[in-house]
Design a protein that fits this description.
By secondary structure, the chain is α/β, with parallel strands linked by helices. The protein has a single domain, classed as Spore Coat Polysaccharide Biosynthesis Protein SpsA, Chain A, CATH 3.90.550.10. 33% of the residues lie in helices and 22% in strands. Strands 1, 2, 3, 4, 5, 6, 7, 8 and 9 form a nine-stranded mixed sheet that branches. Helix 6 runs parallel beside helix 7. The longest helix is centred in the last third of the chain and has 17 residues. It is globular and about 50 Å long. The termini are far apart.
Length: 248
C-alpha cells in the first residue's frame, strides 16, 4: 500500500530540516513524499534540493495559504492513503508511517488518527503539552472534540468523492473537512493510541486571540455549511477542551 505524505512550506528553512530528517528516518518502504512550497525566498528551496532523494515531487509557486497548498498536494498524490507533516513539525518515530499502513490494512477503515506532543519551538525534546485522543465517536464532535489534524490520514478516494479542503476557511478548514467526512458522511475512523507527531508551539490558529476568534467563527460556519446543528455550547467547548492538555 502506497502512503502519500505531504508537506506545505513557506519560508520554513529554520525548521524544515528537522521535518525532512523525520521523513527520511521512516522505515516504511512504499512512501511517496510531496512538498508544496509557496514561493519561499529564505533558503527553503536549497533544503528541498538537498533532500531531493526522499522527495518524490515538489512545486514552488505562490498559493492561497496552507489549505490551498495541501489541496495541491492531494491532487498530485498517487497513494491510496494521504497524510500530512507540516514544515515546523516532526514525525515522532521511525515507524509512524508503518503504523498508518497497518491500520489501513483493514478495508473498512476510512481514516486513522493518533496522539501528538506539543514541543518547545527550540528544543523539540521538551514536551509542553500532550494531545491524547480517544476511540472514535462521532457524537463527540457535539462536545467540542476533533481528531488531531497533524495525525490524520485518509483514503484518497474519499477526497475525490466528498471534496478537499474548503479554502474559504482560513483557520478551520481542517475542522470543516472532518465534520464533513466523519459526521455528515459517517465515514469510519480508527484511533491509534500512539504519538505520531511532535508539533512545535505557535500554530496559526492559536497564535493570537484574534486568530482564535476567527477560528471560532469559522467553526460555527462549518456546521452550517454541512447542514449540521451543533450543540448550544459546542463552539466554546472546542477551545476549552484543550485546557486539559496542560495537565497530562
Amino acid at each position: 500500500m502506497k502512503i502519500s505524505l505531504i508537506t506545505s512550506t513557506y519560508n520554513s528553512a529554520k525548521t524544515l530540516r528537522d521535518t525532512f530528517e523525520s521523513v527520511k528516518a521512516q522505515s516504511y518502504p512504499d512512501l511517496e513524499y510531496i512538498v508544496i512550497d509557496g514561493g519561499s525566498t529564505d533558503g527553503t528551496l536549497d533544503l528541498i534540493e538537498e533532500y531531493k532523494e526522499i522527495i518524490t515531487y515538489h512545486r514552488s509557486e505562490p498559493d492561497d495559504g496552507i489549505y490551498d497548498a495541501l489541496n495541491k498536494g492531494i491532487e498530485r498524490a498517487t497513494g491510496e492513503v494521504v497524510g500530512f507533516i507540516h514544515s515546523d513539525d516532526l514525525l515522532a518515530s521511525s515507524d509512524v508511517v508503518a503504523q498508518v499502513a497497518n491500520a489501513f490494512a483493514d478495508p473498512k477503515v476510512d481514516a486513522v488518527y493518533a496522539d501528538l506532543d506539543y514541543v518547545d519551538a527550540l528544543n523539540t525534546e521538551k514536551i509542553v503539552r500532550k494531545w491524547r485522543s480517544r476511540a472514535f465517536d462521532p457524537q463527540a464532535f457535539y462536545r467540542g472534540w476533533m481528531p488531531a489534524h497533524p495525525t490524520f490520514y485518509f483514503r484518497k478516494k474519499h477526497y475525490e468523492s466528498f471534496g478537499m479542503y474548503d479554502t474559504t476557511f482560513k483557520q478551520s478548514a481542517d475542522y470543516e473537512l472532518m465534520l464533513r467526512m466523519l459526521l455528515k458522511h459517517q465515514l469510519k475512523a480508527k484511533y491509534i493510541p500512539s504519538v505520531w507527531v511532535k508539533m512545535r508551539m505557535g500554530g496559526a490558529s492559536n497564535a493570537s486571540l484574534k486568530n482564535r476568534w476567527v477560528a471560532n467563527q469559522e467553526d460555527a460556519r462549518a456546521w452550517k455549511k454541512n447542514g449540521l446543528e451543533s450543540g448550544p455550547a459546542t463552539r466554546w467547548m472546542k477551545p476549552l477542551s484543550k485546557l486539559k492538555q496542560f495537565f497530562r
